[in-house]
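quick one, three chains, predict together pls
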Amino acid sequence: MMLEYDPGMIAIYSPTMIPIYLCGIVAIYAVIRVVMEKNTLRKLVFLSVMNFAITGLVVLTIPDIMALFAGLAYFIGSNLEANAIASTYVGGEYSK
Amino acid sequence: MNEFYILVVSLIIIIGVIYVYISRSPFDKLIGLAIMLGGAIPFIALNGYLDVALLVAVIMPLTTIFILQATGRKTDDS
Amino acid sequence: MTPELILGLIIFLAGVIISAFPREKDYLSRLIHVEIAATGLLLIMLAYHETIALLTFVSVTAITTIVLVRVIERGEPCD
């Protein structure tokens, strides 16, 4: 099963490329904010921002119906992961 | 466009790996693991393996949740 | 040399090295670093276009992690 999409067919300065550039810039900015932040609970907020941006990047780039399900699974799974980390961190902090 | 996509995703993966190494708390290490996974998913999906991307996106948070059980256990004991 | 092969080799080598010499001498830290090496191996296997191998590798990695977590919970603490 090799689909081998060719995204290079779209011109670089086309107006249809603006959402993809925007998602990439938001993802890089969120990752840098996660690395620079001190508080752990504030890191998880920007981790959720990165998950939104990556989901948009997957869904906007690939012109296939299966990409919607892959993006849906990634969005649900990553939000579940971030909420599990936050729940364990807060429970371990206040129960002492 | 493909160069921009690959550059962004590679930068996210490498930042995640470096952040896992330099952080000391296990929660921060798991956050770095989530960043690295977020970079790896578009790389799988760009080659056309959308079913593999779906399976990885479902299974990897389960792995993180199982590691979190050991983390809470270690924090309560020590 | 596709980009995913080069990136996978870099991440696999980095994961193996930092799993052998971590900053925190702890079992949990080493287990999290092994996950990095597993992701690098997944990216390397992505360059050879075998779907069944990828599916089996992801499933077996998850089962291995669950078994190792059980061993760490039940074993003695590391020095």
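The radius of gyration of chain A is 17 Å.
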